[in-house]
Amino acid sequence: TAAVIRQALGEAQAGRMADACRTAERGIAQGGDAGPLYALLGMLRCRSGDLAGGVDDLRRALAGRPADHAIAGNLATVLVELHRFDEAVDVATADRAEADPSLRLARLRAYALQQAERFTEAADAYRVVLTREPHDWESWNNLGNALAAGGRPADAATALRRAIELAPDVPPVH
Asked: 136 vs 12, 54, 66, 70, 162, CA distance in Å?
């Protein structure tokens, strides 16, 4: 598996994406560790512009490694790019988001919920991020926007004021 990954990455770095995909596919067909190989294949397809194929491969990778935060984050990111927000939320579950030490899944979850107009859930998800990163001005700003969209202007103003305190020179916050 490691040799297949090295070869595919070398081909991708040389700009031979189709060869890289074929190498990963051969590795899977020859019984290599499917989780990392599907994860690699999914990212290669996405970089080649085949987002739908990349989603399918990343789903296979996640099925084989459901606790892998990187695979879940990559899949959720592609789903957000495709505006498939509810599916992104299904990948970036609350449990996965809370278990991810990088907070990438928590941020993706919050954003996807907000884009899906599930504003109360989005606000709760932004609070998960802020519990661990209280100086994250962008999450305070997004929390304010979610609260405003959810009909809570006073709470939104409080969150937005905190964002301004943390990032007074960032125009979008104002």
From this structure: 35, 31, 28, 21, 10
pLDDT tens for 1-40 read 999 999 999 999 999 999 999 999 999 999 999 999 999 9
Scan for tokens 């959810």, then name that residue: 150
Find the DSSP H helices in 14-152: 17-29, 34-47, 51-64, 69-81, 85-91, 94-99, 104-115, 119-132, 137-149
Of the candidates 80, 49, 76, the residue with the CA atom closest to the CA atom of residue 62: 76
Q: Give the distance, in angstroms, between the CA of residue 171 and the centroid of all CA atoms in the same chain.
A: 25
Q: At what angle do helices 17-29 and 34-47 cross, to 10 degrees?
A: 160
76 within 8 A of 107, measured Cβ to Cβ = no
Q: What is the pLDDT of residues 59-105, one digit of tens each?
A: 999 999 999 999 999 999 999 999 999 999 999 999 999 999 999 99
